[in-house]
Amino acid sequence: MSDRTEGNKAMAASRTTGLLAAAIALALAAGLGATVPAHSSSTTKKDPKDDVFLGSLGGGIDLAAVQLATLNRKKRIRVTFGLHSPVQQGSLEKPGGMSVQFIKNTRVWRVVEVVREDGGLRGEVCSHSRGPEVTDPYDCSALPVTRVDARTYRAVVELDQVRKGAKVLRWTARTMDLTSGSPVSDSMTAENREPFRWRL
Fold this sequence. Notes:
There is one protein chain. The protein is α+β, with helices and mostly antiparallel strands. It contains 2 helices and 13 strands; from the N terminus they run H-E-E-E-E-E-E-E-E-E-E-H-E-E-E. The protein has helices at 3-32, 159-162; strands at 42-46, 53-54, 63-71, 76-83, 97-103, 108-117, 120-129, 138-143, 145-149, 152-158, 168-177, 184-188, 196-199. Mean pLDDT is 84; it is low at 1-29.
């Protein structure tokens, strides 16, 4: 077989791989709502498949990406969770679910959560202590939440409910599934487990 034939086959394979990757990226972007309104800013962080930490066998909510986008001239934040696979029955039941943790100050996280409770999908934002001791959440407010499709969920929170007047937000994301009897979690952070930085 000639070098030219081998070269043509390699080019065709490379082109096919490129088209497939582009198709996957477009599907993910569409689900996350990559187009944001004018006067807005957004950030999207992707997460590998099958990196869920298994505290026990089975279960888990595997994050594919999290997108944050400002709305209404940066007065609100749309939080979009994209998953690698549909959520299994019971996986979102509180105290499990999906969340983004925003740093309010040295002592407090403001946490946006999407959970199931009493048979319905629910969004809320609460304060959590950043200290080593586990404490109950407080200062909670309900949030509008939408199940876009089997792998995409959205919640909307006022910027003032997260950090009033913020120009830069630091954040992390995680999921928690307790259906297997012990915690199964997936976490997203920047390098060295530091929070991401998002300039609004």
